[in-house]
Design a protein that fits this description.
With 278 residues, this protein is an alpha/beta fold. It is built from ten helices and ten strands. β1, α1 and β2 form a beta-alpha-beta unit. Bound molecules: glutamic acid (GLU).
């Protein structure tokens, strides 16, 4: 069986030890399986990406001693492809416009008495109201309508399942609510671009942090809507700092460049992550 996995960082900060763990975990799995390890740069967010972070990704991974197969895919070079995928969702009536501001959405979460705290409740607007907002030039995002998806898939909705960490799991896209599939500023979102690329690149195993465990439930739905294959999912634990918080962009001392500057070697970093010696 073929085995294709990937590491897909976003260039919104320098890579830190958590990224090293994720990249090595996917890389080592691919090498052990005699498969392929791809590098994909998820740089759709023009407002947050920085050229220096982008350039540092390959440099830092190469310093770790990682090698990847084939050319690096940069999502920003394929925006027209994602726009075409979004157009299909629009044509099929599976998405609706959401004009809410972040502030309005946050207020909605706080006020939702019985809803899950982290699920944004949103719904299509009446046509007349939507027209007025459009005429006013108000910006909007596109949200995937779970109701419309359920209707489109029919009985297949209840059969949605996937392999996660070795077990068969029933997909429950409701866990995430009507997610944004295209942002106000650009014609896609992380979810749409990432799932599209996994299919295009023939990824058979998605190996990533457990912070994206829930996202897989939505990704399986997107695959079913487009007839794309569903990879197997594996989630690894997140690397925490001394206070038990997950590493983030704020932890400058944990970046691979900072560690390198203090004389740490890739072998030291592997050991600190409790990864087997290569
Ligand atoms: N670009 C995402 C991130 O940096 C990773 C997405 C994924 O592995 O599916 O968090």
């Amino acid at each position: 069986m073929s085995f294709v996995t990937r590491f897909a960082p976003s260039p919104t900060g320098y890579l830190h030890r958590g990224h090293a763990f994720s990249a090595w975990t996917a890389h080592d799995a691919a090498r052990a399986a005699g498969g392929r390890f791809l590098l994909r740069i998820e740089d759709i967010d023009a407002g947050r990406r920085r050229p220096e972070f982008d350039a540092a990704i390959e440099e830092d991974l190469a310093w770790l001693g990682l090698t990847w197969d084939g050319p690096v895919r940069r999502q920003s070079a394929h925006m027209a492809d994602y726009a075409a995928v979004l157009d299909q969702l629009i044509a099929r009536g599976l998405v609706y416009r959401c004009f809410k501001t972040r502030k309005e959405l946050m207020a909605g979460i706080e006020n939702a008495p019985h809803g899950r705290g982290d699920v944004v409740r949103s719904a299509p607007l009446p046509a007349a109201e939507e027209r007025t907002l459009m005429e006013d030039g108000r910006p909007y995002a596109w949200r995937l309508s779970l109701d419309a998806c359920r209707a489109a898939l029919g009985p297949a909705w209840t059969d949605l399942d996937f392999q996660a960490d070795g077990a068969r799991v029933r997909a429950e896209p409701e866990r995430l609510g009507d997610v944004v599939v295209a942002r106000k500023e650009f014609p896609t979102s992380y979810h749409l671009a990432s799932v599209h690329d996994d299919a295009l690149q023939g990824v058979t195993h998605v190996i990533r942090g457990e912070d994206l465990r829930e996202a897989a439930h939505l990704h399986v739905l997107l695959q079913a809507l487009f007839g794309w294959p569903t990879p197997a999912y594996r989630h690894h634990p997140l690397i925490l700092d001394a206070e038990g918080r997950r590493l983030a962009k704020r932890d400058a001392a944990e970046t691979l460049r900072a560690l390198r500057a203090t004389g740490r070697t890739p072998a030291d970093i592997r050991a600190s992550l409790r990864l087997p010696v290569l």
